[in-house]
Please model this.
Amino acid sequence: MTLAHVQMAREPGFDPKKLGKIANRKQEPWKMPLRKFIEHLYGKQYGRDRPAVVVSVEEKLEMKRRKKLAKRAKHKHRGPLPSRPARSRTMKGMMSFLHLFPGIGTRETRTATIFGGDRSLPDDSYGFIELYCVDPDCDCRRVMINVFSETGPTHLATINHAFESPANDDSIQEQTFLDPLNVQSRWSGALLELFKEIMRDRAYCERLERHYHMVKEALRDPAHSIHQVISRSRRSSGLYRKK
Ligand SMILES: [Zn+2]
Model:
């Protein structure tokens, strides 16, 4: 499928059923649609074109949980709010690459478009938003992918991918799997398969690793602006509020 076809498919009156099942958009010629898509995602979620702060899904869930606990405690007069539990390894901070490196992130975030009534997934464009761990002392060598649909936009699946296959004694034996602690939907299985298909593109795999190293290198450089981005995000999420 050529890019011209994909473009035609976006014009009204064109029958996308004539196209193949999956069109993997190459990034570079697609700067504008992709940027719009990303802005669309963030615009809907945060009510502005580019969020001042992106809170990770984990942080959002944790905030929700704490709010619920607070409400319950208040309601039942159970005394003080339970103290914040130790954050899990994940909670320690996965942050969206788009937020940490907006320019490169916008250009290099992968989207895939499904055409022609595929039975396992609705016709839509799907964005694979990368999150990396921002603990400078951790070398987990993995990426978390939040899959959003363009219409909605809705967070449909959370995929965990390790850059190396797991060792024999690792507790998790899969290299690429649906994250059991994060958002999933009825489409998760199909989106995991789609992601695995996309991962057959070596350039994309290498890009994910490159992004991971960019984040880690920036974390090691005390002068890098990434530190301000992270602390601003943490402050506004309320999880790290000083007493
Ligand atoms: Zn890590």
Remarks:
- The chain has one domain: 3-80+90-237.
- Residues 3-80+90-237 form one domain.
- Residues 133, 135, 138, 140 surround zinc ion (CB under 6 Å).
- Residues 39 and 49 are 6 Å apart (CA to CA).
